[in-house]
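Dear H.,

Thanks for agreeing to be a second pair of eyes. The structure we're designing against is below in token form, covering all 67 positions.
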């Protein structure tokens, strides 16, 4: 660091950096939490519905005859 800065000024710089870093981390975790909420609320039931429809429509028909 610069030798002209006082110790108190250096402490304020470090504390300010830590506060800004904690806010950035909080925002990132909030966004990730929101994405996980959306994925579990809509994504998984949608995947289950798609899998069921695919499973029911692609079943081999044993009674069909080819002429």
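And this is the sequence the design step returned. I haven't edited it by hand at all.
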């Amino acid at each position: 660091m610069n030798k002209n800065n006082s110790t108190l000024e250096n402490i304020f710089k470090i504390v300010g950096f830590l506060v800004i870093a904690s806010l950035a981390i909080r925002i990132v975790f909030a966004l990730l939490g929101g994405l996980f909420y959306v994925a579990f609320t809509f994504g998984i039931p949608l995947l289950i519905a798609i899998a069921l429809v695919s499973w029911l429509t692609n079943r081999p028909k044993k009674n069909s005859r080819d002429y």
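Two observations from my side: DSSP finds one helix and no strands in the chain. Residues 5 and 12 are 11 Å apart (CA to CA).

Warmly,
E.
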